[in-house]
Design goal:
Oligomer: single chain
Structural class: alpha+beta
Largest sheet: 2 strands, antiparallel
Radius of gyration: 13 Å
Number of helices: 2
Order of helices and strands: HEEH
């Protein structure tokens, strides 16, 4: 795949996830969490999403637990909102 397509896909994933964090997620542990970067591999099969949550170590463990709990919802929403044959997981 081309680098341009990788970059566009990563930007689209970041935009969709940011919108979901702002408007759809009701978990208070995920408030004030920002998505700093999304990287997608060459085959557009895997994506790494980097988040930033201000606070101490306790806050980081809470955010990690909340993200693990919301993983299914976030993947489902990515599948429904993206126009790709395969959505990176």
């Amino acid at each position: 795949m081309s680098k341009i397509r990788q970059q566009r896909t990563a930007e689209q994933i970041q935009q969709i996830l940011s919108d979901l964090f702002l408007r759809e997620l009701q978990d208070p542990r995920l408030h004030e969490v920002t998505i700093t970067e999304v990287t997608v591999d060459r085959e557009l099969e895997h994506a790494d999403v980097f988040v930033n949550a201000l606070g101490d170590e306790q806050r980081q463990t809470e955010v990690t637990a909340a993200l693990e709990k919301a993983t299914g919802f976030l993947r489902h929403e990515l599948v429904t909102r993206m126009r790709l044959r395969w959505v990176p997981g």
